[in-house]
Amino acid sequence: MTNLLHRFTKAAKVVSSDSTPIRECVYGAYRDHLSNIISDDLPEEIQIIYESVSDRLTSIEPPGDIGIDEVNYLARDILYMADAVQAHYKKS
To answer: Of the candidates 52, 6, 3, 10, which has an alpha carbon nearest to the alpha carbon of residue 31?
Structure first.
């Protein structure tokens, strides 16, 4: 399993947790698994999504000040990127 696939698989598991509030899941997935990815290393079709998620999660003052609707969208974006990375490496 490639490093990117491993990171996105782990992030998807964190975001899918039912035992932790979604806001904590999204921040945890990004912080622990996705924060130091270089967007140029990603499949082209998700680079802009990754950059958007990254910008949104790192530009909040104070951290954690994102509404529940936006957190849900960010969680879906992370899951979408995980699926796209998995599909990309299945083709290879």
So the answer is: 10
